Amino acid sequence: MSSFGLLALGGNLPSQFGSPIQTLQEALIHLNRNAVHIRAVSRFFQTPCFPKGAGPDFINAAVTIETELSAQDLITELHKIESTFGRQRLTRWGTRPLDIDLIGFETEVLPNASIWTHWRDLPAEQQAQMAPAELILPHPRLQDRAFVLAPLLDIAPDWKHPVTGRSVAQMFGDLPNFAQKEPRPL
Length: 186
Prior knowledge:
By secondary structure, the protein is α+β, with helices and mostly antiparallel strands. It has seven helices and six strands. The chain has a single domain (3-185), classed as 7,8-Dihydro-6-hydroxymethylpterin-pyrophosphokinase HPPK (Alpha-Beta Plaits). The N and C termini lie far apart (36 Å).
């Protein structure tokens, strides 16, 4: 049985496949293999590095997928692809050739609503220092990130967050005006 997932892709360093744009294009080919099937791809966006000033601008995109994999097995597959592209997990929120985040998976809230809420509400300075030991879904900072929401608007504007009930379009509309303008379509 196939499951529906939302992925966010980004990178701001070149890889062996070329520039960040070429890297994302190649990553899409690697994603669309075996048990993962891409159903829609957003436009590419150029976005200031997060946190601001930490490196070159990112190129971001989003995809919708269908997969036979569980959410945990999908994350394992995404990490393998990132590694193929030279991703090293040395610094949280650091520069990288490729980042693929599982943003949402069906209507799953993992590992449970209480732990999800803890990670969503964690202060930004602690988020920058700590990474969860387990998969947290949907992505706990999805609603705060224009660089994820802008590409998702292209392909899944009506997808509803399983905890808040807000659609991608509503979450993007909730962002401050300056944040909405940061991701620039290429």
